[in-house]
Design brief:
- With 258 residues, this protein is an alpha/beta fold.
- The chain has one domain: NAD(P)-binding Rossmann-like Domain (Rossmann fold).
- 35% of the residues lie in helices and 16% in strands.
- It has a seven-stranded parallel beta sheet, sandwiched between helices. The protein has a two-stranded parallel ribbon with strand order 7-8.
- The radius of gyration is 18 Å and the shape is globular.
- It starts with a strand and ends in a 12-residue tail after the last helix.
């Protein structure tokens, strides 16, 4: 497919862009900075929050858009609205104007972060954001649902867990999403004929995961990595107060009253 990735120079985008290309997709990106990578020539450098023309160029001719661009950390309410609601709205509108029928949106597990930990949590659990960041992601999921119902766009919202090259904490043993599995998940959402509107958890096949992967597997996602490979090294480190907080809620230490 011809795929446009927003936030192509970001933490996930710089792995996903070449990863999807290696799987046969024709990938272009857009970001406010140019990545220091060999494929940087395929990235439109522009501020997608304000540059209508550049966004239109990046989306032109695409079959699908993967929206990653966002402030990746906690912020003020106003900044969360700009980053996680106004920006996705611009991308969804741009996709609709360009005739793009498929969108993959990078949501977050923090949309349900105040949910108490359980053995296995379904995607149907009620929205319980743990931060303004999580609130923004939850609001964007609702916006994506509207664009699916009103305009017939096929949209997958990925509640991404802990994306990094290797797990580093006890919480990561359940929440980790590997680089390769992230590419497999997005690729499945791009190719799946079964996609209409879906919210799925973005985690690897971790032995200790607490999020239900069945909805993602229904779209063809087959994760191959497991954080358990690093369990002995991680558990050799004495637990901290944050580790205890991580055990209480899905969102980990970010989900703490007050």
């Amino acid at each position: 497919m011809r795929v446009t990735i927003t936030g192509a120079a970001g933490r996930i985008g710089r792995h996903l862009t070449p990863g999807l290309a290696a799987l046969g997709h024709d990938v272009r990106g857009i970001d406010r900075v140019s990545p220091d990578e060999p494929w940087a020539g395929d990235v439109v450098v522009a501020e997608i929050g304000t540059d209508d023309d550049a966004l239109a160029v990046a989306l032109s001719g695409a079959d699908a858009v993967v929206h990653l661009a966002a402030n990746p950390g906690e912020s003020s309410f106003a900044e969360a609205i700009d980053s996680h609601l106004r920006l996705p709205h611009r991308v969804l509108e741009g996709a609709r104007d360009a005739g793009i029928g498929r969108v993959v949106y990078a949501s977050s597990n923090h949309a349900v972060g105040f949910t108490p930990r359980a053995a296995m949590v379904p995607v149907e659990t009620r929205i319980r954001p743990d931060t303004f960041y999580g609130f923004g992601k939850a609001a964007a999921e609702a916006l994506c649902s509207l664009y699916h119902d009103r305009y017939g766009m096929a949209i997958a919202c990925l509640r991404i867990g802990t994306f990094r090259e290797r797990p580093q904490s006890r919480r990561d043993l359940g929440s980790w999403l590997s680089v390769d599995d992230a590419t497999r998940l997005v690729d499945a959402c791009l190719r799946s004929p079964a996609l209409d509107f879906a919210i799925v958890y973005g985690v690897s096949a971790n032995t200790r995961r607490w999020w239900d992967l069945d909805p993602a597997r229904a779209l063809g996602y087959e994760p191959l990595d497991d954080a358990e490979r690093w369990a002995d090294d991680i558990e050799a480190i004495p637990p901290t107060e944050d580790d205890e907080l991580d055990d209480r809620y899905l969102g980990g230490w970010l989900a703490r009253p007050g």
